[in-house]
Amino acid sequence: MSGRGDEEASRLDQLKKTAAATVSEIGSLTVNDKGEVWFAELSEMWPGQAFTIKVKEVLFHEKSKYQDVLVFSSYEYGNVLVLDGVIQCTDRDEYSYQEMITHLPLCSLESPAKKVLVIGGGDGGVLREITRHETIETIEICELDEMVPEVAKKYFPKMAVGFDDERVKCHFMDGFKFLKEVDAGTYDAIIVDSSDPVGPAASLFQKPFFDLVHRALKDTGIVCTQAESVWLHLDIIQELHKLCLEVFRDPAKNSGSVNYAYCTIPTYPSGQIGFMLSSKSNIDFRSPKQKLSENSSALLKYYSPEIHGASFVLPQFAKKCLDC
Ligand code: SPD
């Protein structure tokens, strides 16, 4: 090979060296023969599979006190936030999850929400959605890792916009500690926007946490928590469902409601993620009772009253599993 062929080979070689230098410290990035850098989402939570995205540029990579924080720009999904190797959100599809985890509970309430708490949610996307509800007077967020909002404000300004709302108050601390200190019956809704139940978020899927949530909610309040994928995590969903029934159902009063809903989202494992909604009251989560204003509704890209109801309709295999 000579001339053009040699030039091309040396260009590729150079590209690979540059890319390799970028990826050497980040385990989830690899460089292929063409010098392209790819992110692969590997986790024990979805063994034997990995979603991959072609990386344009690594924008931020640091270890916080709690986790590995990575932001890169991509060719097809805009900027991507990754915590401990797992995708948390991308510019292109974040609205699907953030709209559904927020408007499912807030629109299921019998009366409009006034006081709402977010546990986790440091990227600000859920805050942005909550602020679309004009009746809400106070929005508190309890996020463990201060680095996440900092990074979100810089690299995801459209998502982190919720932090600017004057009703928002931030607490940077452990969700458990925070909930232990709040008065009983404080919140109309609690949204648990957690990462997966490995690492810092593991305790947010366990009974002691839900006991505290139960205490912090008003009698008519609703908690909505990230509840994983029917394709990958039926065991986790089943456990969580059982746990929420144990905490929120009161057979003596014949009260309490627990239901699983889901949305589609290409950059979460298997393209689907769910939400567990629970309340001490008898609430038909499937039928929305609250409406967003026309102005707010016009800004939504995924949620609608129709999709609200439809999101509780499960495929047979998942339905059977949660019925038993
Ligand atoms: N498998 C990833 C689940 C991440 C859920 N939380 C995302 C945070 C977005 N606000």
What is the strand and helix layout of this fold?
Layout: H1 4-23, E1 29-31, E2 37-41, E3 51-63, E4 68-74, E5 79-83, E6 86-90, H2 94-108, E7 115-120, H3 125-130, E8 138-143, H4 147-155, E9 168-172, H5 175-181, E10 187-193, H6 207-216, E11 217-226, H7 234-248, E12 257-264, E13 272-279, H8 294-299, H9 305-310, H10 316-323
Parallel strand pairs: 7-8, 7-10, 8-9, 10-11
Antiparallel strand pairs: 1-2, 2-3, 3-4, 4-5, 5-6, 11-13, 12-13
The structure holds spermidine.
Walkthrough of the structure:
Helices cover 31% and strands 27% of the residues. The chain has two domains: 89 residues, Spermidine Synthase, Chain: A, domain 2; 231 residues, Vaccinia Virus protein VP39 (Rossmann fold, 3-Layer(aba) Sandwich). With 324 residues, it is α/β, with parallel strands linked by helices. Helix 5 runs parallel beside helix 6 and helix 6 packs across helix 7.
Low-confidence stretches: none
Give the number of DSSP strands. Answer: 13
User: What is the CATH H-level superfamily of the largest domain?
Assistant: Vaccinia Virus protein VP39
Q: How does CATH name the architecture of the largest domain?
A: 3-Layer(aba) Sandwich
* Sheet with the most strands: spatial strand order: 9-8-7-10-11-13-12
**Helix residue percentage:** 25-40%
Cα gyration radius (Å)? 21 Å
Distance from N terminus to C terminus (CA atoms, Å) equals: 66 Å
